[in-house]
Design brief:
Number of strands: 0
Helix content: over 70%
Structural class: mainly alpha
Shape: rod-shaped
Distance between the termini: 91 Å
Number of domains: 1
Strand content: under 5%
Length: 61
Amino acid sequence: MLRRRVSRWIEEGYKASVERAKQQATEAADTAAAAVSSGALLDFLSLVIAAVAAWLVAHSE
């Protein structure tokens, strides 16, 4: 009887820990995806600006 209660208590603690770890991993992945997305957008804009600047320099003569 006591053994079952202890076993159940340990199992519940384990399941709660696994659930917390999954939630934290999901939040970390969402944060990383947002950062990468913002970085990619800024990189794209930088390339467009550089291309326009290069075209202006090439056609300014």
